[in-house]
Design goal:
The protein is α/β, with parallel strands linked by helices. The chain contains 5 helices and 5 strands.
Length: about 140
């Protein structure tokens, strides 16, 4: 499969995609393209675009995607955070349908669901932090030490 790595991903990640022909946006000289233009241009030569841009599904009209897109969701875009996702990506590439968008990784579910969960944690008091804050200014934590 021909894969294009987006600018948001480290170039060495392509070496881990064994058995696939991998190039980067930088190598193709497409660094100045917007997401829509990049997807249209990539569709001519590539089968799939790998990106860490979690907002791409909101910026593009998904039913009209010209190419398959895999969004890698990790704690950071650093290679050590993305490498654990490679087995999932390689397995996905075997069955990936053209013109689809798939999220792979940590909290790869619906962004809206994650946003609701974060809001609830904040409103109800995040139990992981062990503190509850009301909207009153006097009870908010001080930024000074």
């Amino acid at each position: 499969m021909r894969i294009l790595l987006d600018e948001s991903l480290p170039r060495p990640l392509g070496l881990a995609l064994i058995g696939h022909d991998v190039s980067t946006v930088h190598a193709e000289s497409w660094t100045s393209f917007s997401n829509g233009a990049l997807l249209r241009q990539a569709a001519v030569t590539f089968d799939v675009v790998l990106t860490a841009d979690r907002n791409i599904e909101f910026q593009q009209n998904l039913p009209t995607l010209p190419i398959a897109v895999v969004v890698l969701v990790a704690n950071s875009n650093r290679l050590e955070s993305l490498e654990p996702l490679i087995p999932q990506v390689l397995e996905l590439l075997e069955t990936l349908s053209p013109k689809t968008l798939v999220r792979v990784g940590v909290n790869a579910g619906s962004p809206a669901r994650r946003l609701r969960r974060v809001r609830c944690n904040w409103l109800l008091g995040d139990k992981r932090v062990g503190k509850r804050y009301s909207m009153k200014k006097s009870t908010l934590p001080s930024s000074r030490s």
